[in-house]
Amino acid sequence: MSSRLGRTQGSWRRMLIWFVWVALFLAVWCGLVFGQGWWDRVATHWPIAIAMAVGSYVAGSTPMGGGTVGFPVLVLLFEQPAEFGRQFSFLIQSIGMTSAAIYLICSGRAMAWRVMGWAACGSAATLVLTHYFLFPHVADTAVKLTFACIWGGFGLVTLVKLRELLAHHHAPTMDARSDMVLGLMGGAIGGVASGMTGVGIDMVIYTVLVLVYRADLRPAIATSVVLMAWNSIVGTTLCVVDGTIEPEVFSNWLAASPVVLFGAPIGAFMVARIPRGPTLVFVSVLCILQLVWTISRIGATTKLLLVVTAAVAGMNIVFHLMHAFGRRFRPDPGEEGMSLIDP
Question: Hey, what's the torsion of the CAs at 108, 178, 234, 190, to 10 degrees?
């Protein structure tokens, strides 16, 4: 009895930082809403709060940031420009993903810390470069298609490889050199994706961990959540420094932020307690459906269909090569091939 009580008290002490974070944010939010008389903004934008209740849960329990729901809802359903969806993704994830990241760290979840550190460096650099030198010169439609193809391709490969992904139980780390190289490469690619759409580093690092490292899904998801929180903070900082945040984006953030403050940690809590398979199938189907939705909204011309098909096929070829490399590099017991590292 005493040992159980001690473990319970220890858990509460570890979670103290998360409770402090929640209290501080709610105090600031209440100050803005009631002190500035902005309750009308919150009441007017309640639909995005409802959407992000689902989005934040998905963000905390899968390798998909909250912007994966927020971006298509604002851009496709509410017909806002891609810049709105990108800004909102950064802002809302800087609360929801940060809240989930603090929860995961306080609860002592296993993560690929070394990979995460290198990926954080690489993604921050390319996100800044993309923000200033690439995104301003890309057409709005191209940004929408980039988002749709990235997540559509990810959803497809997850469905195809689901059984194998669920069977992996390797630790999410290898030797220091491999962690550095793969972390920097994955971070650099993910930073470009995040700079374009507001999300992406989470999916890229998760894919590296489960296809190349053949890591267990839970530490891979936890690592992706923390990295997406970091990229969201970097992206939000850039938007604030530039003074480019649209009033409508801020109003949507104001309405949805208290929801994601709790929704993402709830998702992170549940991922360790519910079957991973059904959750991944659900979000993979959502990824594919949003690709179809994007094409229908933009206009399904023959040229567009060919471009999208080529992009998604190209992504899945890359994913397949990564999986084949990981199988040779780090085989499970009984598989053919020799491991280049200690299991």
Answer: -110
CA distances (Å), origin 313, targets 47, 51, 151, 156, 264: 34, 30, 12, 10, 31
Question: What is the value of pTM for the model shown?
Answer: 0.89
| Burial category of 170 from C-beta neighbours within 10 Å (exposed 0-12, middle 13-18, buried 19 and up) | buried
Alpha carbons 87 and 304: distance in angstroms, whole number: 26
Q: Are 116 and 105 in contact (CB under 8 A)?
A: no
**Residue written as token pair 């999916």:** 203
Sign of CA dihedral 284, 286, 290, 292: positive
pLDDT over threshold 80, residue 5: no
Return the DSSP state at 45.
Answer: T
The contacts of residue 38 (CB under 8 Å, 6+ apart) are: 32, 254
- The string of DSSP codes covering 204-241 is HHHHIIIIIS-B-HHHHHHHHHHHHHHHHHHHHHHHHH
% the chain with pLDDT above 70: 92
Assign 3-state DSSP to the chain and report helix, strand, coil percentages, each to 5.
Answer: 80, 0, 20
What whole-number distance in Å separates Cα of residue 233 and Cα of residue 326? 31
The packing angle between helices 82-106 and 16-30, to 10°, is 140
